[in-house]
Amino acid sequence: MKPLREWRTERLWSVRELAERAGVQHKTVIQLEYGRQRPTYATMRRIAEALGVPATEVEEFAATLGERGKGAA
Question: Domain 4-71 adopts which CATH fold?
Answer without folding.
Answer: 434 Repressor (Amino-terminal Domain) (1.10.260)
